[in-house]
Write a structure and sequence with these properties.
alpha+beta; three-stranded antiparallel beta sheet; 5 helices; Aminopeptidase; 7 strands; 157 residues
């Protein structure tokens, strides 16, 4: 497994709100059925709501050389209603397969613990092997807005 870049830091979204326009574009592109023009989601509103410092929704961003490379948040999952859930985990395409998602997942686990939570959830169609490697346990299935079926994972903290 590759280690994330040494120059990368993971920090609260509240301290880097200047990245929100870039993240809005990423969300609309990656999750078009939900955040696209025909979808029910509002990427900007969701991201702005995650600018809390000590409560969920709580956003994190990975920053490298003054550029946003990834984001994730602790929030309620609108598909499963499970909370706290890791939501909006998205790594910029040019930064994938470098350990950034692993670093973000670890950071969300750490922050959830700090907020007093004992477990954390995530629903996904793509992160299966990574979640298994990091000690997450599959606990159910979910159907997303685009009719894709995914899995729900839980991590005991």
């Amino acid at each position: 497994m590759s280690k994330y870049p040494e120059a990368m830091t993971i920090e609260p979204l509240s301290e880097h709100q200047w990245v929100i326009p870039t993240l809005v574009k990423w969300y609309r592109s990656e999750w078009e059925p939900y955040y696209g023009s025909e979808g029910p989601g509002d990427a900007k509103a969701d991201l702005v709501s995650r600018c809390n410092r000590n409560a969920i929704p709580y956003g994190l961003v990975a920053i490298e050389n003054n550029h946003v490379v990834a984001t994730a948040a602790l929030d309620i999952d609108v598909t499963t209603n499970l909370t706290p859930s890791v939501v909006g985990l998205l790594v910029g395409p040019e930064y994938r397969r470098r350990g950034v998602a692993t670093a973000l997942l670890r950071a969300t686990e750490h922050h959830a613990r700090e907020l007093g939570y004992r477990r954390l959830y995530v629903s996904t169609t793509v992160l299966h092997s990574l979640l298994h490697r990091l000690g997450w346990r599959a606990t159910g299935h979910v159907e997303f807005l685009n009719n894709e079926r995914g899995s729900i994972y839980v991590r005991e903290l």
